[in-house]
Specification:
53% of the residues lie in helices and 11% in strands. The chain is globular, with a radius of gyration of 21 Å. The chain has a 5-stranded antiparallel β-sheet, sandwiched between helices. It is built from 11 helices and 5 strands, in the order E-H-H-H-E-H-E-H-E-E-H-H-H-H-H-H.
């Protein structure tokens, strides 16, 4: 019998929706690039039975008491759930024992997040990501069909935005490109620390770790001034 799994995350709804959408597009491209048409026909039933995926806000009326928690981790699970802002709903989950496409999809999706609180429905206890992965790893995934699938996992892990800071950096780069097209790019940032970030960003496009290192700032200063830079740039018309 198909079930529904819920992945609870402390990520803003819009950010999570963009992340899940990007992951789905990457996964679809992989299937098209890796399998020939006749192979896709062969696996058609498995692919068609993949669960439906939705991103939703956490219901306001839902409380931690509505779940069957893991007693040993109750406090940790409660604190994590109370910080969650959104949920990935995976509806009509097929039997994982017989669908390597679904197993690989879930493994890949979970690799994008540091931690996830998972409700598997029914009387199942809440579990964190690592416990859920322990079950998934017992089943066959696409590595058993396509050895190169491991390369896809590595590519997605490094190319997709994962944390809120990644989305913030994307927004700042969008503002910089907008101003560059209009020849409105300022010569300096709104403050010395913001300018340190700004100077690095106009020199090229970098991921969060590289940008942080090149800015020479402390972590909190980096986060605060990156957000200040974003709103300051948006005001320039």
């Amino acid at each position: 019998m198909a079930s529904t799994h819920y992945f609870y995350l402390p990520i803003k709804l819009n950010d999570l929706n963009a992340l899940v959408k990007a992951h789905q597009e990457k996964f679809d491209l992989f299937l098209g690039d890796t399998f020939e048409d006749h192979e896709l026909e062969k696996f058609e039933k498995l692919i068609d039975s993949l669960c439906a995926v939705y991103v939703q806000p956490v219901l306001s009326e839902l409380s931690f008491e509505d779940f069957y928690c893991d007693i040993e981790n109750e406090t940790k699970q409660r604190f994590f759930f109370e910080a969650c802002k959104s949920v990935i709903v995976l509806e009509n989950m097929p039997y994982l024992e017989t669908n390597p496409f679904q197993v690989s999809y879930l493994l890949q999706l979970l690799s994008l997040f540091d931690e996830v609180l998972i409700d598997q429905g029914g009387l199942a206890e809440l579990v964190f990501k690592e416990n859920y992965l322990g079950k998934l790893r017992k089943y066959k995934n696409l590595d058993s069909l396509v050895p190169s699938y491991g390369e896809l996992r590595a590519d997605i892990k490094t190319s997709l935005p994962i944390d809120p800071i990644d989305f913030l950096i994307i927004d700042v780069y969008k503002e910089i490109k907008r101003l560059q097209k209009s020849n409105l790019i300022p010569s300096e940032g709104p403050s010395q620390k913001s300018h340190q970030i700004f100077k690095v960003m106009i020199s090229g496009e970098y991921d969060a770790q590289t940008l942080f290192r090149k800015s020479g700032l402390m972590a909190k200063d980096f986060d605060d001034n990156l957000e200040r830079l974003k709103f300051w740039l948006r005001k320039i018309q």
